[in-house]
Amino acid sequence: MNGEKGYGPWSSYGESKLENILFTNELQKRAAQSNKWSNLKAFSLHPGAVQTDLARYLIGEEKFQSMKENGFSSWKDKVVMESLAKFVKTVQEGASTQVYLASSNDVVSNAGKFFSDGRPMGVKAFAMDEQKAEELWSASENLSGVKFDL
Q1: Where are the domains of the chain?
Q2: SS3 for 147?
Q3: Got the DSSP string for 13-74?
Q4: Is the dihedral of CA 78, 81, 86, 91 positive or negative?
Q5: β-strand 114-116 against 44-46: which pairing, if any?
Q6: Would the pTM count as exceeding 0.85?
Q7: From the centroid of its chain, how far is CA 115?
């Protein structure tokens, strides 16, 4: 957590997404065991590759800003970025799974699951590690100074 052992744009991003899944799993487990919060349903999801400014962390803030203001600085950048644009979702398309999960009664039986493109998807076994989820929950409480009442 927090890049104590090192930071890499992709590896740290991946670790944060794993932690999102683990935390959500623990939240759903605790909600299901609670009388007060048993109606709470939690989900984790991957929105897909979405046209956002996230690339600024991967290519560098300065280069990203220059591309936005001045266009592509090289033919290579133009080809790469325009090719990638064909495979990314609009912000609205990227939000569709979140909207679906927040508004549909059809997903209640899939509480705690991981979704992509509006469908539950399987995840690797390490993303379902209950002990790691409990440890992350405790670390979150300790780091935030907040005791989650579930």
Answers
A1: 1-45+92-150, 52-87
A2: coil
A3: HHHHHHHHHHHHHHHHHHHHH-SSSTT----EEE--SBSSTTHHHHH-HHHHHHHHHH--SS
A4: negative
A5: parallel
A6: no
A7: 11
Could you tell me which CATH number the domain at 1-45+92-150 has? 3.40.50.720
CB 119 within 8 A of CB 101: no
Distance CA(139)–CA(128), nearest Å, equals 17
| pLDDT single digits (tens) 38-85 | 999 999 999 888 777 766 776 778 877 777 777 777 777 777 767 777
Q: Is 90 helix (H, G, I), strand (E, B) or coil?
A: coil
Give the whole-angstrom CA distance, residue 37 versus residue 17. 24
CB atoms within 10 A of CB 123: 16
Q: How many residues does the chain have?
A: 150
CA atoms within 13 A on the CB side of 143: 8
- Cα separation of 12 and 84, whole Å? 22
Catalytic sites, residue numbers:
13
- What is the per-residue pLDDT for 55? 67
Contact 148, 137 (CB under 8 A): yes
